[in-house]
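hey can u check if this looks right to u? its 558 residues, i copy pasted from the old doc so theres a chance i mangled smth
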Amino acid sequence: MKHRQRTYSLLFSVIAILLYACQENHKPAEKDIVSVPEKIQEHLSEDIKSILDFAAQNNSAINDSVMLGHLTLDRQTYEGKNFEGIWSSNGHWLLAADSLFQYIENCKYDGLFASDYHYSTLSFIHRVFNADTIARKNIALWAKADLLMTDAYFKLVRDIKQGRLKYDSVTLRTDSLLSDSVYTTSLNEALQSNNIAATLHNLEPKHAGYDSLIESLRDFLSTANLQAYTYLKYPYKDSLAFYTALKKRLNEVNFLPKDSGQIDTTAISVAIKKYQGAKKLRQTGKPNQQTVDDLNETDLEKFKRIAINLDRYKLLPDTLPHAYIWVNLPGFYLKAYDNDTVVFESKVIVGKPLTPTPLLSSEVTNFVTLPQWTVPTSIIFKEMLPKIKKNVDFLRKENLMVVDNEDNVVDPNTVNWAKLNKNHFPYQIKQQQGDNNSLGVIKFNFRNKYSVYMHDTNVRYMFGKSFRALSHGCVRVQQWVKLSDYLIRNDTMRYHPDTLRAWIKRQEKHTVGGFARVPVYFRYFTCEGKNGRVKFYDDVYAEDKILREKYFADKSVN
């Protein structure tokens, strides 16, 4: 008997727990019709609290398709206002709500995606309210809209102030997490001014490059076709999936007839060859990186690249030093700044895709005239040693000398090259100074863990190439004379430009230092605003491609 009582007691306890759990996870009411105006605010507060309670128990989800991005901050905000509505009053939108909805609707002009800010749900609610006066009495719908607008505003603050890209080792911002006060202060300012766009604009980066790209984005969007087309992932792992997507993409550009039949590789090959011919690409009839990149270069994908680059500015500090050197790797250029003015610009040669120039922040400490190049071990083993083993005369032709551990020059013909390898190589290979030196006649040093630097080159004709990702990782500077003059511009009593030129003419090695150190930034921007238009650069290291897949793959603008 006692055993049966214990069983019943346990059963009732389980049922009670289940009932409580069901009650706790009970979905907020979809309808809460209030006809008495005096009761609207009371019901609105109850419905907002109900939605927040449900979201807290369901991993921030308020239903099957909508999640709150800032649940904790949302709740704190409404608790501070006794769960009263923020964006509406007595069944009417406030001016700030209209301003916010309009901003979200047009946020593409700031490189943002409306779908990130509950636009679909908010747009539906707006349409329902405009079309049905009875629906406007549904306070549950007003509560959902109010909460989603607050959540959307907080996400806008984060995306505009901080960006959507993950902070990395070269990020110069210190506020990796925004404080709650940043969000709440901005929200209060927006509600007081009723001007959402102006309030959010105050959070944007204060950089001329950012402003130019935003301005040029408007020109881009004026003619852009933002329709989503099939995106091709290449190189591919699944050939069937790739060719299925390729067939669909060729259908979309009308180079392959639309049909529902099986994949015809011969027909696809013919279509690719026609496409390559029309685009003035090498006609192979086979998919390759260049052809796939061209097929993927739609206006929507260009917009995503613009969005990525706008966010790259958000990784910079609010202000840069008054003087600094800026190297844009995909743009193949260097700019020297002084008090926000470009003192000079130079073409540069950067690392090949297989030996990319790293992103970095440093300071130029000194430069050396008539430098001697010590060949990095990576280049020795990957490129030089096989050629030396084949023909020792390679060293003479390349103006290279072999040096032992005591810096003594060794006759290369006395070395048993066949026995040398990565694990046993008791030498250094150096290139003698002069015009035939790979570093040219000058080298600019700055501390970094990658052992890269800026320098002149003995193959100056390469600056005439449009694609200049050609080095082993260091940056070759065409206007090295102007760069050296820039570095000593405030110290010409000690280092007169004529003195530097004389040293170089006489082929004298000197180390020039002691000048005020100038910050140098190697950065990766694949587009910029120029003369009111967006100028795109090649994604030489596929950085855009990686970020696109991670953050923007399935996003659409419309």
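Confidence is low (pLDDT under 50) at residues 11-24.
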